[in-house]
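Final paragraph of the annual report: two paired records, presented back to back.
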Amino acid sequence: MINKVSNIDTINVLLNIENYEESAKEVLKQLKEEKEIAILRSNSNPEYKHIICINDMCFELFSVGRIGYAYILQNNDYKIYVSQYKSKQKNFSPIQIRISSECLWSDGITKAWGIIYNWVVETFGNIINDKVCRLDLCCHVDNIDFITNCSQIYKGKFKEYNFNYKNSSINQLTFGSRKSNNIYCRIYNKSLEIREKKQKLWFYDIWSINNMNIENVWNIEFELKSEFLRSANITTVSDVKSRLQDLWNYCTTVWLVKVDRTNKRIERCPINSDWLELQNAYNEFCSKGLITRSKQISDDAKSLIPTIVGYISSYGAKRKRKTLDDTFSIMLVDIKSYLRFKNSTFEKIIDEKKSLLFGNNRNQKQ
């Protein structure tokens, strides 16, 4: 029997706003003024981050935008693209939202979407409609062999596949093309990824709660683009929540299937029994969060320790220090000197970073 846990890992949503330029006039004016400050200060200091708070939420405001969107706001939960004007293009939406993986795993799609939906209404105006333009569905599993004879055991709608190796062993399989296909699938060693990157160590807690072997968890993830979602009559976030089982069922019963190779002709081979169980991953999907945000942030902080030790020991060696306390004492002097040169304080930097991590006061109110 396999152990598994499934979730929406990423979702991008386009929002159309009623009377956009008029209802959002004041905040667009604010964003324009703040961006001018961000550009001016980042020109003299490439490390500068411009932090703004709007309606109980804090963001970094980027000094650059992208095509169609003059302003980009980002914190630990959301990335928001904001247009200065309502384009005359028929399908253009002035607001685009990306909900982070961390937010979706901690809050669940219902709460995460409710928070940002209400914030957008209060900030920019009434939402006419929402359109999901990207959706990533994933399932973490153990006790499945994805890689033995992998070139001969998968069938489906995909037209190309690739394998990536780590130390002569396959650690990732990809199906389809991220650039040209409406569905793209990755199956990869999630345990290995976390060990190497030392990030998102909080997944260990989720896996342990679900009785999974934390040393050998693999992730199967389908990236679904707007063209496929439209063809399946899935437009809104509400559609997504009500059709998750249908989406996963199509991805794992039609688009990609693992078989037991008992016949020369792959179409005659039976579906692998573990894959049959995997197909049920979203049958009883729960929209609630699977880990608290405080636990996520605490584990992420601990994951920085190896890097910190590396930097401090290198610094101590170059400053000819012998102990940790001795290194800290001279480092404190150098840090204060650096901050004076940058016309900043450690307290100010800490407050800015905390505002992006914990600045979503709406989350606390839910």
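The closing record of the year follows.
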Amino acid sequence: MTAITDLEIFARVARTGNMSAAGREMGLSPAVVSKRVSLLEERLGTRLFQRTTRQLTLTEIGEGYFKRIGDILSLVAEAEDFVSRRNTTPRGVLKVTAPTTFSRLHIAPYLPKFLARYPEIELDFHLTDNFTDIIREGFDLAVRIGELRDSSLVQRKLASDHRVICAAPRYIETYGAPASLSELDFHNCLSAGAQDYWRLHGPEGEHHLKVKGNIRSNSLEFVREALIAGLGIGLRSTWDIGPELESGALKVILPQYCGSDSVAIHAVYPCRDFMPEKVNVFIEFLSETYGPEPYWNQRLDLQRLLKPCLVADNAVKKESAPVPSRQKRRHAPAAGQSDGHA
């Protein structure tokens, strides 16, 4: 039977793609790591890695082996954590992946309080607006924003995600504000990631709109700056653009419509019989920090901000204003299709 230590070495090499990096993490020399991996391959009678002078990649068999031992190592780590902590002190390295902008605005400012409360926890954050396979990459927890599909992962809602249609005064003054959803076809709608479809809720119920514009980016911050510069219309979260709404740098348009209620901010983690205390306390801390009604919404005068803006004279403006983009409406996405949030 293969020793657990050899499985750990193999998993570290698979995750880092580098013998030296795996050795540094485990306090072993690259030579020892290489020898243990070679002995494991000999014992199994197969090659787990393809080796070249420049890179180290898993073979097809290695990929399958890595997926299967991941759960084993997680259970071993949980068992050891359960015994060592005795349900009292959260400790150890907490690996988290989360969206870049949300982390900067609504996680990082509160970490001093969290670490003061739990001094034996070390935080390892990976920030990206792209989807990350937390099991494959060895993360304890992911913070995700969107409508989550069914999966083997456990999810807990941390806060609602109220999204509004908005544009800068400069854009509205130039092109006018749409008076109806159908008029969005004639406007430049800016998207982040795969947000080609806007899922909206309004007086008539749910709407799935295909939108199009001349700017797309995987960065939420980049698209926000493009909106502030007056380059188009966007569907944005109040946690992201609250200060701009308060200052008037962005205005809400079509206030009777907002993003679908099914989109929210979630904590996502692997399905396990029991959860390491370090994960549990971090989720509880974020939930406590945001509150039942997120603090970023409490700071906004939503009643004032959601009043119709610059629509009364819209017809006059549109007669003389240039048309930024004229696109035909597309069909709605298939059921269950994501709206492109992280």
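The chain has three domains: 4-80, 92-161+263-295, 163-260+300-320. This concludes the annual technical report; the extension proposal builds directly on these records.
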